[in-house]
Write a structure and sequence with these properties.
The chain has 427 residues and is an alpha+beta fold. It has nine helices and 23 strands. The protein has two domains: 209 residues, 2-Layer Sandwich (PmbA/TldD fold), CATH 3.30.2290; 199 residues, no CATH class. It is 22% helix and 38% strand. The strands form three sheets. Strands 9, 14, 15, 16, 17, 18, 19, 22 and 23 form a nine-stranded mixed beta sheet that branches. Strands 1, 2, 3, 4, 5, 6, 7 and 8 form an eight-stranded mixed beta sheet that branches. It is globular.
Length: 427
């Protein structure tokens, strides 16, 4: 088995490759698998993934090719793979760009999990999940917990050697409600960077409420005409699509809809949106300090008061556009509003809880989705409903946005826990 130093030496010895880069991901995982509340499997797993990228500068252009280096790869096989990769790279005529250079670091991302035994962390999470179930005829049908230590390293031929260590938890749960002759399940998946047990218990309790409501939900007889309320999961998808329009890669390929100076909200009647791309956020499992090229991540506000004010992106595409790179930023933070959730939900609305998938298409100015579970509030009574859909113009809906004052973190999203949008068709 070749070690990392040997791989580096073999790559450096190839005379055709102009430059090279190696990324290495080492994972140590402690895993628990439950059926109902009984442990079925306890497992420890270690893995190493290595990717070698070779670059060939030729004819005023730059080509690249990448391949995996497996633990059982022998020296002669690796030499052949590098030769093959350089031949393929020489057929690619990308514009030249400069790789990051002469930087080293060894960083530990701050987390409670870094100071907690994985076995203890998994047990605490399991106890928290099962303690959330106080509902009659409801159950956590299955639960999987992964406590993971990830060590990510990137090395290139220009003097970059960076290592980052982070600890995360991945939780998968299936809340189930049992009725007369039928059962309903929901699938929940969470990636956490801290042991926020209070949040997790509250979240699972809410999901058990929802699965019970899903069993009782009916299609509403009349067409509904009211604002809709989006929750954190759909908001993360919404703002991901909005932010992606300002990626330098899209601008370079001329597939972006907006540019700096354009308005996201042309005539805001509610809250003005402010959105910042970040490398890391407390509680987010998507936090990083550098990207796969070794570029340090730099936070960048891209939307301020409903206006696009900056782009973001990798060193390659930033270089093409003559911009300062931010690196591949994976976290989105949206400024909260001033309306308390209780007030936001006080008037007639349809709160969306589960969709088949939120559809957001900025290029066609569309937002919509099929609704599997929502709560309709008619001003007096809150009723679970299903079997309907919504759609409308994204630009018009964003002009009406009311952002909650309460903040939440979910995955790579931090921002308002709820957002109310008006003017959408419910059918």
């Amino acid at each position: 088995m070749l070690n990392l130093q040997e791989i580096l030496e073999i790559a450096a010895a190839n005379e055709t490759a102009s430059e090279f880069k190696i990324t290495e991901v080492k994972k140590e995982s402690y895993e628990l698998f439950f059926v109902h509340d009984k442990v079925e499997t306890v497992r420890k797993a270690d893995s190493v993934e290595r990717m070698l990228t070779v670059y060939v500068n030729h004819d005023g252009a730059k080509g690249m090719n990448s391949f995996s280096v497996y633990p059982n790869t022998e020296r002669d096989e690796l030499e052949r793979k590098i030769d093959d990769a350089t031949r393929k790279a020489a057929l690619i005529f990308d514009e030249p760009y400069v790789l990051p250079n002469d930087e080293t670091c060894n960083v530990l991302l701050d987390s409670q999990l870094a100071h907690t035994d994985p076995k203890d962390a998994a047990a605490l999470i399991a106890d928290t999940v099962f303690a959330a179930n106080t509902h009659e005829n409801c159950d956590i049908n299955a639960l999987e917990i992964f406590v993971v230590k990830t060590v990510f390293r990137v090395i290139n031929s220009r003097g970059v050697d960076k290592t980052q260590t982070k600890f995360t938890v991945h939780v998968e749960a299936i809340p189930t409600a049992n009725g007369e002759g039928e059962s309903v399940e929901l699938f929940e998946s969470y990636d956490l960077a801290d042991l926020d047990l209070d949040w997790l218990k509250s979240e699972l309790a809410n999901r058990l409420d929802d699965v019970k409501a899903r069993l009782e939900a009916k299609k509403p007889a009349p067409s509904l005409n009211c604002p809709i309320v989006l929750n954190a999961y759909e908001l993360s998808k919404l703002f991901e699509e909005i932010a992606a329009d300002m990626d330098y890669a899209r601008a370079y390929m001329h597939v972006n809809l907006h540019s700096v100076g354009d308005a996201l909200q042309s005539d805001p009647q509610g809250d003005k949106i402010c959105l910042t791309m970040r490398g890391s956020m407390k509680g987010s499992a998507k936090s990083n300090t550098f990207d796969a090229d070794g570029t340090n991540l730099v936070d960048r506000e891209i939307i301020h008061d409903g206006m696009y004010v900056a782009g973001f992106g990798t060193s390659r595409f930033a270089g093409y556009l003559g911009k300062t790179p931010t690196g591949a930023l994976g976290c989105i933070e949206v400024r909260t509003g001033t309306t308390p959730t209780e007030q936001l939900l006080a008037e007639k609305h349809l709160e969306l809880v589960y969709l088949s998938g939120l559809q957001v298409e900025p290029l066609t100015d569309y937002i919509g989705g099929e609704i599997r579970l929502a709560y309709y509030f008619d001003g007096e009574k809150r009723t679970p409903v299903t079997g309907i859909a919504f759609s409308g113009k994204l630009s018009e809906a964003l002009n009406t946005a009311t952002l909650s004052a309460e903040r939440t973190v979910l995955g790579g999203y931090a921002g308002p826990a709820k957002v109310k949008l008006s003017g959408l068709n419910i059918f």
